[in-house]
Amino acid sequence: MDGYTYSELGAILAMQGFAGISLFSVLLLMALGLAIIFGQMGVINMAHGEFMAVGAYTTYFLSYLTETYFPAFMPYYFIFAIVVAFIVAGILGYFAEFILIRHLYARPLDTLLATWGLSLIMQQSFRSMFGAREVSPTLPEWLMGAYQPTEMIDIPINGMFVLGLTAVVTLGVFYLMFKSSWGLRVRATTQNRVMSGAVGINTKKVDRYTFALGCGIAGIAGAAFTTIASTGPTTGSLYIVDTFMVVVFGGAASLFGTIASAFSIAQAQSIMEFFMSGSMAKVYTLFALVLILMFRPEGLFASKVRR
Amino acid sequence: MSFVYEKLMGGKQGMVGLIILSALILVVFPMFLDSFRLNLLGKYLTYAFAAVSLVLIWGYGGTLSLGQGIFFGLGGYAMAMFLKLEASSPENTAIQSTPGIPDFMDWNQITALPWFWEPFSSFSFTIIAILVVPTFFAFLIGSAMFKRRVGGVYFAIITQVISVILTVLIVGQQGFTGGINGITDLRTLNGWDITSDSAKNIFYYVNCVLLIGVIVLSRWVLTSKFGRLLLAIRDKEDRVRFSGYDVANFKIFIFCLAAMISAIGGAMFTLQVGFMSPSFVGIVPSIEMVIFAAVGGRMSLIGAVYGCLLINFGKTVFSESFPELWLFLMGGLFIAVVMFFPNGLAGLWQDYGHYVTDRFTAIKNKILNKSTPSNDSAKKTLPETELS
Amino acid sequence: MYSNTDYTLAVEGLTVSFDGFKAVDDLNFYLDKNELHVVIGPNGAGKTTVLDLICGKTKATSGSIKFLNQELTELSEHAIVRAGVGRKFQTPSIYENLTVLENLEVSYPQGRGVFGALMFKRTQTVLDKIHEIAREIMLETELDTEAGLLSHGQKQWLEIGMLLIQDPQLLMLDEPVAGMSVKEREQTAELLNKISMGRSVLVIEHDMEFVAQIAHKVTVLHQGKILATGDMAEVQNDPNVIEVYLGH
User: Fold this and answer.
1) What is the DSSP letter of A104?
2) Where in the sequence is the domain holding C92, given as residue range(s)?
3) What pLDDT digit, counting tens, does each position of A242-269 carry?
4) What range defines the domain where residue B303 resides?
5) How far is CA A281 from the centre of its chain?
6) Is C121 within a domain?
7) How many independent structural domains does chain C possess?
């Protein structure tokens, strides 16, 4: 690290830290959805990345529509797109659960294969509909640019916006899962399906909406994703492994663990990226995760249960 | 299940299945396919090693490994490193700024052969490395995971992550590994031109014989008490543990064996195809190997070979004429196999095969009855042909 | 701190807590050779947890478990089994896809290592032992039946047989007559009386009639602690026991 003065190092740390914040936001949004689907329902959704891509493509499509037909609406469409991305991905998730997932709850390894198949189909659908090239929505003016607290530090506004969005969604999920009566039913169902059915919870309905919710949040992640990178048919598959690592590392059923784990993974990756190639940063990050998981297979924040 | 076990694994039926497969790949295909197609088939059959290894670890062991590409790749790269060194003799590489090292190293301003490349100039070391390195790697992963009782979903995810790490590493360190293009331009094996048709034909037969050998070895493992214990562990792990067995050791062993088998496939791939690249190491090939086994029948060693051939044949046909459709079809296949045919082709044959054999028997009886009307025992003595 | 004893099993000061909840609390418990000891107690008393602790499924927070003067708390599960402790689970835990013969064979205490299992041969000695055990558990005619097809009671017997074939010095049975018919219960009682010769047997059971038939000694467990111990009559007349069972 010679060659850098302390103030330069500080600025690098701050800027890479903020670059990490964008990655953190997307990872966390993805992981929140997956934590619900995998952590709560035990379904290994390999198509989760594709649900994110659905959100990203929805945003792109809305941007295209707005630009072509209602240019005056451009400054506002993005907010609208986030909601639509959530709904579209959620509805697709709802049907995926209905057609596919519900038959496989007893066979978690098979959900992995089936959802992988689903992801292939979704990728090819993106390719057929939007082409093989990567696309980006036109972002509203107010998302562009950067905030400069000092001369050396640039903080992109889109990063801060996405961070804010992530905070809102995280709070929403927390409220929904742990404070609302619906969340209680979800947690009851995942802990003891038979008993929940016996006390009058419609477990099938709970499963379906839970899965749809998880996919919907992935859709929001997709909308957020469009602010930091462009979207191609295989974009989702690039993030699925990282997302699984976030969820597993955080301890599958812990919301706080998921946040902490998304933060540490994104920051480690992003700060290391400045000092070495992106690929080596990824290798070190993933390697460290695998090593840690070998010593703590239950993840960082798993709760102890009497077996 | 004991039915499946008896029928698929041993006895007369198992023998018949093996003979049919051997006849098909050793006699029938070479008779009807030209050299190019045969080489293509040979390439598919190298994946069959990985599919067979998944029958062991996933079908019988109950542990899904999404890392068979790691071992396939390690075996393939070990072989490729040897061939590359042979192709990079100082005479062949005289125009490089550092002659005598592989071309991609020269392009990446590397001026001396890295230490871990050195031993691969020896053929015998390479053969040992192909067998030992992946097995040892599997032993490390397996010990770390199985001793701590990590299994099921977590094992699948972690093996997948390891395959990602390896891929990213290979792509990122292109000076040492050839990067995304892999190790290409392989020409000779101990001075013998491997790109000639005759060499390719010989590799095809070597590959077939090795594959059959691997199936027989696997069958021996599965029919031993070890095989019954694997099934027992899959279904009632605690009961096995509390019968005095160290369950982790059994899983580690079968994982190592599966790794070694995949590695042989990888090495044969390099020999027949003439290069090795990271696209045979990562997530996609690893999970495709799983679908080969799933389509063939995750409990059937021979079924896995057919599954592998069928899918790769389909892939070749479709991606030539309807590339758009292929991913839809492949995706649909994943879903259909999991939801409707969990035992794959072998399971279908089990459920519906008797229609074929009954018909076959009936026709045969008819013929026999015509010539020798009093032959009652014809039906009894006719062996039921088992595909799997 | 802990002394050597003549007991087959000596449990002293055994405690396990799950996040502060003490499922077993400072338990002292001794088992003699040839003794058939039954542990009873209301649900949640910690009975199954005690078996889990002895066979190593759950790790103790503190205390000692000595089996033939060998400390078990430091051993792994398979080592405990190899030392001579067999354990039957509450729900019959057998390999449903294997035949009765294969079930017994898999449990046969030979070829327990990886390579031993690869090289294991079904010799006459093995077959003789399997037949002997099958006769004892009344399944000799069912040797080629797939275990999943057995009746619930037969499955219980098969699991007992899978333990007997290892000739353990300590046999622990968690609710061996659950789901059995009256006739099967009687046969099981007879079986248990027979197999307790030459070894120690620890049984968890709810059915008091059955307990009276088999128990040499009874221990009542309540909230992780011993409430009373003694023969059946003593325990039944113990005021504490009556309080717990009938008081509420």
Assistant:
1) G
2) 9-246
3) 898 898 888 766 778 888 899 888 888 8
4) 2-344
5) 20
6) yes
7) 1
DSSP conformational letter for A36: I
Distance CA A158, CA A228 (A): 8
Residue B373 lies in a domain: no
Compute the distance between CA of residue C193 and CA of residue A167 in angstroms, rounded to an integer.
66
**In this structure, is residue B378 part of a structural domain?**
no
Distance from CA of C49 to the nearest CA of A (A): 9
Between these two residues, B232 and C91, which has the higher pLDDT value? Answer: B232
Q: Which of A63, A114, A126, A124 is nearest to A89 (CA)?
A: A126
Longest distance between any two alpha carbons in chain C, whole Å: 59
Q: What CA–CA distances, in Å, run from B291 to A42, A289, B197, C109?
A: 21, 27, 31, 38
Query: How many domains does the structure of chain B reveal?
Result: 1
Mean pLDDT of chain C: 88
Let me know if A3 is exposed, middle or buried by CB neighbors in 10 A (0-12, 13-18, 19+): exposed
The amino acid present at B28, given as its one-letter code, is: V
**Cα dist from B78 to A150, A286, B70, B74, B133, whole Å:** 52, 24, 12, 6, 9
Strand partners, C218: C38, C230
Going by C-alpha positions, the residue among A271, A253, A278, A250 that lies closest to residue A262 is A250
Amino acid at A122: M
Residues C135-188: pLDDT tens digits?
999 999 999 999 999 998 899 999 999 999 999 999 999 988 888 888 888 999
Q: Strand pairing partners for C200? A: C170
What φ, ψ does residue B157 adopt, rounded to 5°?
Answer: -65, -45
H or E element, residue C172 = strand C170-174
**Using CB atoms, which residue from C81, C97, C102 is nearest to B235?**
C97
Rounded to a whole number of angstroms, the distance from the CA of C151 to the nearest CA of chain B is 18
Specify the pLDDT at position C5.
Answer: 64
Domain with residue B146: its CATH number is 1.10.3470
Do the domain assignments include residue C2? no
Binned at pLDDT 50, 70 and 90, residue C246 comes out as low
Would you say residue B99 lies in a domain? yes
More confident of the two residues C242 and B271: B271
Q: Which of C78, C97, C120 is facing B224, going by the closest CB pair? A: C120
Please check whether residue B379 lies inside any domain of the structure: no
CB contact (8 A) between residue B235 and residue C93: no
Of all residues in chain C, the one with the smallest CA distance to A307 is C58
Angle ∠(B279,B336,B43) on CA atoms, nearest 5: 35
Q: Which CATH number fits the domain that encloses residue C34?
A: 3.40.50.300
Highest mean pLDDT among A212-216, A259-263, C122-126: A212-216
Cα dihedral angle (A102, B61, B139, B141), rounded to 10 degrees? 10
How are strands ordered across the β-sheet holding C36-40? C85-88, C170-174, C200-204, C36-40, C217-222, C225-230
Residue B81, token pair as written in the block: 């490193």
Cβ atoms A85, A223 nearer than 8 A: yes
pLDDT above 90 for B207: yes
Closest C-alpha among A199, A212, A273, A196 to residue A18: A273
The tokens describing C81, both together, are 């089994």
pLDDT at B6 over 60: no
Domain residue ranges in chain A? 26-295
Residue B202 CA to chain centroid, in angstroms?
19
**Percent helix, strand, coil in chain A (nearest 5)?**
75, 0, 20
In a mutagenesis test of the C interface, which of B242, B254, B343 is the best target, namely the one with the most C β-carbons within 10 Å? Answer: B242
Q: What residues in C contact B231, CB-CB < 8 Å?
A: 95, 97-98
- What distance in Å separates residue B37's CA from the closest CA in chain C? 39
